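Deliverable D5.2: sample structural annotation.
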Amino acid sequence: MPLLRTALGCCTVLLVGGGCGHTVPFSGGVPDEDPGFTNLVPRRLTYSEGADIHPQWTADGSAIIYTFEQQLPGDEYPDRCLGALPADGGSRQAEWCWPGFDQGARRDGIEWGALAPDGTLVFNHHFGAGDKQPSPFAGAFYHAPAGSDPLTASTALLTLLAAPPGGSEPYDYLLAPVFTRPREVTGLAVAVSVAETNCPRCVWDTVYTGLDLVRLSLDAPGTVEVLARVLGARFLAWDGSVDRFFYGRADRIEAVPTDGGPAAIVWQLPRSPDRGIPVLTGVAAGDGRVGVSWHYTDGDTRHSVIGLLRADGGVDEVVHSINGPRWGAISLSPDGNRLVAERTEGGQRDLYLWVFAGGPADGG
């Protein structure tokens, strides 16, 4: 595959080893005097009345797997389901919702899924206690074989909310699961806290606290292999082209080899005495590119930024919103040519897509 492309310097992959290529990184919409790409217009992918969140690319880059909320008439609380979008947007190609029979009195949540090239599906499922007690009281990480009905043929690979054999403590979710090998899934095991303040309907405002980078074998349910202890990690992303996982922790991005090993600091959030403390909101990786999103305040001004890391430690900004929408979790396609991001504005959370060099022209 081609190595990282930037307009201003050598490739980000040099941070963890590799070579460099030089081509124009975007297919259009970037003025010559704006090397930060802040005027590139993204393509809107979803129009949700609830939340469209947790975007992840499939291993072959043909689709985006994400979580969406579904609230049927009469439901007291929305369920969360998995959906699959084509790489360039359009109608959902597939969706997976838990078949509940409680008319919405309980919250079923299918989140953080991964789809292998052969159609094998893995996902997290939580069973909630309802809108006045939102913390889930049961959950598992499931595996559904290729060619099956995922929700009737699925089997639990790992019981959540309990300490698994081989694990260090109870896991609430496996964030950003990815098929690093045909029959193995790696993900970020986290604990989750739920904010309930000013919550008449207990909207699920969750905070993830990383615990372990873990691997599960589809052929050995019930146990995990801890590859690295990553306390406080968030926003896991995998780049098979450089054999690294990237994750955010506090104010920095770190990398760890696919099969575990010592972590290395890749980048730290820029700080200034005149600005508020910056907050990391997303990490992405693909074909040598590393993406990051964060926000900060400068006086009364709110800034939200998505950018691509440069080898010199700088950032080529893809978008920089001032007193506008907030950009959250991001994901780069395996070829590094597409970036999808959560966008929050006015309580609505949707997904937006940027297309870089090698893909179709950007949409409005």
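Annotation notes: The two ends are 29 Å apart (CA to CA). Residues 150-153 form the longest helix (4 residues).
The annotation will be released with the project's public dataset once the embargo ends.
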